[in-house]
Design goal:
It is built from 32 helices and seven strands. By secondary structure, it is mainly alpha-helical.
C-alpha cells in the first residue's frame, strides 16, 4: 500500500510541477537575488547610459517644480494643521529619494490633494477622541503606516495588481483631475483665498467672496498666462533654429515666476501689506524629528491600509498616464517600494504622508522638458534652500503668477477631450468607463473616479466571460475558411523565409494583458532579428531608462544567440486566430507595437495579421487601422508603388491561414530582398 502511495505521489502532475519549479528557483536564486536587489535602485542601471545633454532639461524641470512646491507646502501645512517646516520636509526629502529609486521621469513626489484629504480625515478622527494629541504626532504615524503597507506591497512585487487600471480609466481620471486643478487656479488669479479643493464646493465659495476680487492680482495672473503662451509660441517657431531661444523658452516656468517675483518685490517691498497675496515667510531650519507613537500606531495601522491603497492607486494612475503619453515604461512595484521607503523616512524625521499623485507638479515637470528622475535633485535642493538662504527671496512669489503658470501647464499636459470621440469609435464599454472616471473624479474625488472606472471595466470583462457562446458551423463556413487555389497546409521541409518573424497571440488582448503581450512580441523580435542602427538623434530622444542596444544584447545572451545567428527583420506575422476580443487598451498596445517594429526594422517592415475574426477586424477598422487582403484586385500593384518609392504602407495585410501569410511573396517583398542583400551593421 505504501509503495503504491509513493508511486502515485512520484507521478502526481502537481507535485512534479512543484518540484520542477523549486529546482529552477534554487538554481536561479543567486542571479535572481542580484537582479531583484539591483531593481530596487534603478539609478544604478540607467545612470551609466545618461546623456550629458539631458542635464539642461533636467535642471530646468527640477527648478521649475521646486518653485511650485514651496507654495504648495504652505497650503498643505495650513489645511492639515502642521508646522510649515514639516510640510517643506515632505517636499524636499521625497524628491531626493525618488531620484535614486523612482522609475517615472514625470511624476514628482510630495504632498498631494489625496494625501491631504485622507490625512485630514484621520487627524479629525483622532483629535475627536483625544483632543490633546498634537496634529504632527498623528501625521507622522499615518506616514509610517502608509510607508509600511506600500513597502510590503512593493517588496512582494505586487504592482501588477494595479494593472486593473485600463487606459480609458486612467485617461478619464487624469482628464477629471486636470479640470479640478485648472478650476482651482481661478481663485488664485482672482486674488481670493478659497479653501475648496472639490469642484462642487469651488464655485459657491468663489461667488461668496466675489466682492474681494483683487484687480492687481487679476492683471498679474493674466500677464503670466500670456507670457507662458508667448514663450510656447516662440519655442515652436524658432526653438528648433536657435539653441539659446530653445533653452530660454523651455525655462519659461522659471522665467515667468522670476519676472513676477521681481515685480512683486519692487511693488511690495516698502508696503506693510502686499497689494496681492504672496508666499509667506519661511522660517529657517529643519524640524526636530518626531518618532511615531507606538500606541497611536496600533490604532491607525489597520485603517491605514485603505489610505495606502488609494495613495498608491492615484500615484500609479498618474505615472501610467504620463508613461503612455511620453512613450516610456515604469515599474509599478518599484514605485510602491519607493513610496514605502520615502514615507517611512519621512515619518522618522517628522514629515507628513506623500505620494506622486499631484498633477500640478507632474504637468510642470513634463512641460519643462524633463528627461529623467535626476531633475528631482534640483527640486529637493530648491525646497531645502527655501528653508534657509532662499526664504527671503521666495516669500515675494505672487500666488496669482503661480496660478497662471500652473493653469497653462496643466492645460498643455492633460489628455485632450477628443479622447471621448476616440473611445466612442473603438469601444462603447471603454467610453463608458472613461466617461464615468472623468465625471466621478470631477464631481467627487480621484478615488471615486478610479473606483467607478475599474468597477465598470471589471463588470464588463466578467459579463463577457459569463455570456460566452459556442457557434455551430456548416459546410459553407468550412469552405469559406479555405481560399481556392492556395494550400493552407504547411508541407514537411518548408521553412520560414529569412527575415520573417512569426508570433502567435494565445488569448484575447485587453487592458489586463495588453502591455505584457506587446513586450513579449517586441522582445522575441529583438532576440531573433537585427534591425537598422539607431541614429544619434534617436539615441538622444530615447527614454532615459532604456538603451535598446544593451537590452537586445541582454536578451540574446539569455537565449544563447550570437549576432551572427540573427536575421534582418523584414516581415512580422501576428497570428490572431485565438483572439476573439480586443479593447481600446489592446488597440493602443498594437499601435505602439507597430511603431516600435518600424523604428527597429525600418519604415518598410511589413506587418501581416492572420485569422482575424469578424469582431476583431471590425474593432481594427473602427480604430482607423487600415487592413486589406493581398488577393484583392489591384492591391499588390498599389503596395509596390508605395514601398518602392520609400513611402510606408498604411494598410497591413490580413490572411485567413498562417501558412499563407508566411509564404506569401508580393513584389514588395522581392524588392526588399534585393535591397537588403548589401551588408548592414547588425543591431
Amino acid at each position: 500500500m505504501a509503495i503504491k502511495l509513493v508511486e502515485k505521489l512520484r507521478h502526481d502532475p502537481n507535485l512534479t510541477r512543484a518540484g520542477s519549479g523549486i529546482k529552477r528557483g534554487v538554481k536561479g536564486f543567486p542571479a535572481g537575488t542580484g537582479r531583484y536587489l539591483a531593481a530596487k535602485v534603478p539609478i544604478a542601471k540607467w545612470l551609466p547610459n545618461y546623456a550629458p545633454r539631458w542635464l539642461i532639461n533636467d535642471a530646468i524641470a527640477g527648478i521649475s517644480v521646486g518653485l511650485i512646491a514651496v507654495p504648495q507646502a504652505i497650503v498643505f501645512a495650513s489645511l492639515i494643521g502642521i508646522p510649515l517646516q514639516s510640510a517643506l520636509l515632505s517636499s524636499w526629502l521625497p524628491p531626493l529619494v525618488y531620484s535614486i529609486m523612482g522609475t517615472s521621469r514625470d511624476v514628482t513626489v510630495g504632498p498631494s490633494m489625496t494625501t491631504q484629504m485622507l490625512t485630514t480625515t484621520v487627524v479629525k478622527g483622532v483629535t475627536a477622541v483625544a483632543p490633546l494629541v498634537p496634529v504632527p504626532f498623528v501625521t507622522v504615524v499615518v506616514a509610517f503606516a502608509v510607508g509600511l503597507w506600500t513597502l510590503i506591497l512593493g517588496l512582494l512585487n505586487l504592482g501588477f495588481v494595479f494593472d486593473i487600471l485600463s487606459q480609458p480609466v486612467v485617461d478619464g481620471f487624469v482628464m477629471g483631475i486636470s479640470q479640478v486643478v485648472i478650476l482651482n487656479q481661478v481663485p488664485g488669479i482672482l486674488g481670493l483665498t478659497v479653501n475648496a479643493p472639490m469642484f462642487m464646493d469651488l464655485m459657491p465659495q468663489i461667488l461668496k467672496n466675489i466682492s474681494q476680487v483683487n484687480g492687481a492680482a487679476i492683471g498679474l495672473g493674466i500677464a503670466s498666462i500670456v507670457l507662458m503662451v508667448a514663450f510656447k509660441f516662440v519655442q515652436k517657431k524658432w526653438g528648433t533654429k536657435n539653441e539659446a531661444i530653445k533653452i530660454i523658452c523651455t525655462s519659461r516656468h522659471i522665467v515667468v515666476i522670476g519676472i513676477a517675483t521681481l515685480v512683486s518685490y519692487a511693488v511690495n517691498k516698502d508696503l506693510q501689506q502686499p497689494i496681492w497675496k504672496v508666499t509667506s515667510q519661511v522660517k529657517s531650519g529643519v524640524p526636530n524629528p518626531i518618532m511615531p507613537n507606538p500606541i497611536l500606531l496600533q490604532n491607525i495601522l489597520l485603517p491605514s491600509i485603505a489610505i495606502a491603497f488609494f495613495i498608491s492607486l492615484e500615484h500609479i494612475s498618474l505615472a501610467k498616464a504620463f508613461a503612455n503619453l511620453n512613450g516610456y515604461t515604469f515599474d509599478s512595484s518599484q514605485e510602491l517600494v519607493h513610496l514605502g521607503v520615502t514615507n517611512l523616512i519621512n515619518s522618522y524625521l517628522g514629515g507628513a504622508p506623500v505620494s506622486g499623485g499631484d498633477l500640478t507638479r507632474a504637468a510642470i515637470n513634463a512641460e519643462s522638458g524633463v528627461r529623467s528622475p535626476l531633475s528631482q535633485l534640483l527640486t529637493g535642493a530648491i525646497v531645502l534652500g527655501s528653508m534657509f538662504q532662499l526664504g527671503d527671496l521666495m516669500k515675494w512669489i505672487p500666488d496669482a503668477a503661480i496660478a497662471g503658470v500652473v493653469l497653462v501647464s496643466v492645460v498643455e499636459a492633460s489628455p485632450p477631450m477628443g479622447l471621448l470621440g476616440v473611445y466612442w469609435k473603438i469601444s462603447f464599454a471603454d467610453l463608458v468607463a472613461n466617461f464615468l472616471a472623468f465625471n466621478a473624479t470631477l464631481l467627487a474625488s480621484g478615488q471615486v473616479g478610479i473606483g467607478m472606472g475599474v468597477a465598470i471595466s471589471t463588470f464588463y470583462t466578467l459579463f463577457r466571460l459569463m455570456s460566452t457562446r459556442a457557434s455551430a458551423l456548416n459546410s459553407t463556413d468550412l469552405e469559406n475558411q479555405h481560399n481556392p487555389g492556395h494550400s493552407s497546409w504547411w508541407s514537411k521541409g518548408d521553412t520560414i523565409p529569412d527575415g520573417t518573424a512569426v508570433v502567435s497571440v494565445p488569448r484575447d488582448i485587453m487592458y489586463l494583458n495588453a502591455k505584457h503581450i506587446k513586450c513579449c512580441i517586441v522582445d522575441s523580435i529583438y532576440t531573433e532579428f537585427y534591425g537598422i542602427p539607431s541614429s544619434d538623434t534617436e539615441k538622444l530622444a530615447r527614454p532615459w531608462n532604456f538603451c535598446r542596444e544593451k537590452h537586445v544584447a541582454r536578451l540574446r545572451r539569455k537565449a544563447g544567440i550570437f549576432k551572427a545567428e540573427t536575421q534582418r527583420l523584414r516581415i512580422v506575422v501576428i497570428d490572431l486566430t485565438a483572439v476573439s476580443f480586443i479593447d481600446a487598451t489592446g488597440m493602443q498596445a498594437l499601435t505602439k507595437l507597430k511603431n516600435e517594429i518600424r523604428q527597429y526594422g525600418g519604415i518598410n517592415t511589413e506587418m501581416r495579421f492572420v485569422g482575424m475574426c469578424a469582431a476583431v477586424k471590425k474593432r481594427f477598422q473602427r480604430a482607423g487601422w487600415g487592413l486589406t487582403s493581398p488577393y484583392e484586385m489591384g492591391m499588390e500593384d498599389s503596395l509596390e508603388e508605395g514601398e518602392v518609392a520609400g513611402v510606408a504602407v498604411e494598410r497591413d495585410l490580413v490572411f485567413d491561414h498562417l501558412a499563407l501569410a508566411v509564404q506569401y511573396q508580393n513584389r514588395v517583398s522581392r524588392v526588399q530582398e534585393s535591397l537588403y542583400e548589401f551588408d548592414v551593421k547588425k543591431v
